[in-house]
Each structure stands twice: as C-alpha cells, then as structure tokens.
C-alpha cells in the first residue's frame, strides 16, 4: 500500500459481484465484520476511509473530493470488471452519494442509511456545537474505561467488535471530528440536496427510526427518485442510527434484497407514500 492508497480488505474474491462497504465517522472497516458474514455470495471491498482506522497511512486530507478519488482508484483496480455496488452508513452513505454522482461509470446500485441530517458550513456556531456533540457521543466514549464503554454500547443495543473498538480508540480525537464535519459541510445543505437528486442510480435509503427521522428519510427518497424513479425509502422500527451494529443480520438481509431486486424484509417499512398505490 502506497501513501496514496487506502487500506482495505477484499473478502470472498471469487464471487462475481463486488460490493464496496463504506463505514461511518470515527469508525473503520471493522464496522462491517458482522455484516460481512452474511454476504458470502458477494465480493466485498471494505476500506478504511482517510484518517480512519489504525492502518490508514494516506496523508491526504479528509475531503469529499480526496475520498472519492481514492475510492475511484480502489474500484478501478480491485472491483470485478471495474465496477461496484455501494453500501454506506452515515458518513459512508454521504460518501457513496458523492462518489456515485462524480463517477457514475464505476457504480451500480446503492444501499445507504443514516443520511438524513443537515450539515452546516464549517466555521459556524452550529458546526462547532455539532462537533462537540459528535465527539462526546463517539470519540469521547473510547476515553472511558473499556467496561463502561461496553456497558453503554450494550444499553444502546450495539455490538462493537473488539477490532472496531481498537480502531476507534486509536483514531479518536476532536480534530478528526472537526475534519468529518468539515467534509460533510463543505458545500452546505443545498448542494447535498442537489447531489442526492443527481444520482441516477437505483438507490435505497433506510432510516433506523429511533435516531434518524422518518420525514428526513422520506425526503431523501424523493430526492433520489429525481435521478432514478426506481429509488425508494424505508424505515426500520426499533433501530438506532448505527443499526448495522445493532442487527447486522437484518442489515445484510436488506442489502441482499435490494441488490437482487427482491421484496425488502418485512421489518422494512416503506415511508414514501407517493410510491404506494
């Protein structure tokens, strides 16, 4: 791996169809360990995004353009036939949207979650407040004794793999939190709305409805359908924002159903009424 490549894992390399799995903020490729077990029929490319994971050696700053460029190279060099379907959680979901808009020739279908939030431009009071909240709710937790971290995670219904905990602890910093929010707020909300509308790929957005708003998910579904009328929006009751860590089996079921163009699992509830009837 050169300084201008991302660390990544390639899983099930003999499978014919490639999925690129993109993790959330202050996380790593280990976020997908339990989901990947249920996706054995797919070739999986699972990278650490810039500035994330213990092994990420890329000095390139965490920006949308830089991240998309690195992921473009990863797909071109390692995905079967130089093309991949995208799965993204939170930061990974926004990254998937940007990547699909910038490099549509490399991208198939999209399955994304946790992408309903608004992001203020960097340097504003709201952005600074968001950084403090995000740091305390994610990075700050890893500064607690491991037993306390495990208790909090269990109370939230989340199963945090030991490898993921180690990566989160190694990279946890207020500076990384600021970099993430700066990346998400680069061009403000209006451009995010535009980007969702410009994705011409068959896409599904899913909300873990305990934390992510149903209305925001519905709006994202409408925006995605501007670019592709097959796109849809669903909610899953009883799930938190990071529900890939809460119910990896169900998360993987949703991925497989969407990629194979089958009916979504029963617990996936359609939230876009304009799709009904």
Automatic annotation (TrEMBL):
Residues 19-253 form the AB hydrolase-1 domain. Coiled coil: none annotated. It holds the Pfam family Abhydrolase_6. Keywords: Hydrolase. One of its GO terms (cellular component) is membrane. GO terms for molecular function: hydrolase activity. It comes from the Eukaryota. InterPro entries: AB_hydrolase_1, AB_hydrolase_fold, AB_hydrolase_sf. This is Alpha/Beta hydrolase protein.
């Amino acid at each position: 791996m050169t300084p201008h490549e991302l660390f990544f894992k390639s899983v099930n390399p003999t499978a014919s169809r490639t999925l690129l799995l993109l993790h959330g903020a202050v996380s790593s490729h280990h976020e997908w360990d339990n989901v990947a077990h249920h996706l054995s029929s797919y070739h999986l490319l699972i990278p650490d995004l810039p500035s994330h994971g213990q092994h990420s050696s890329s000095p390139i700053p965490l920006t949308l353009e830089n991240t998309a460029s690195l992921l473009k190279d990863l797909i071109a060099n390692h995905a079967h036939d130089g093309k991949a379907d995208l799965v993204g959680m939170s930061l990974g979901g926004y990254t998937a949207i940007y990547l699909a808009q910038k490099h549509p020739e490399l991208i198939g279908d999209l399955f994304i979650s946790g992408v309903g939030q608004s992001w203020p431009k960097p340097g504003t009071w709201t952005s600074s407040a968001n950084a403090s909240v995000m740091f305390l709710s994610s990075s700050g937790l890893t500064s607690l004794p491991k037993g306390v971290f495990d208790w909090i995670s269990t109370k939230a219904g989340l199963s945090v793999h030991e490898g993921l905990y180690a990566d989160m602890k190694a990279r946890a910093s207020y500076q990384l939190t600021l970099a993430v929010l700066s990346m998400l707020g680069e061009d403000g909300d209006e451009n995010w709305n535009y980007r969702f509308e410009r994705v011409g790929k068959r896409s599904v957005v899913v909300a873990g409805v305990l934390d992510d708003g149903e209305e925001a998910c519905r709006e994202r579904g409408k925006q995605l359908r501007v670019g592709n009328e097959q796109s849809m929006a669903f909610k899953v009751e009883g799930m938190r924002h990071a529900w890939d860590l809460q119910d990896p089996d169900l998360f993987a079921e949703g991925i497989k159903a969407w990629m194979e163009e089958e009916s979504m699992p029963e617990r996936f509830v359609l939230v876009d009424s304009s799709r009904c009837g």
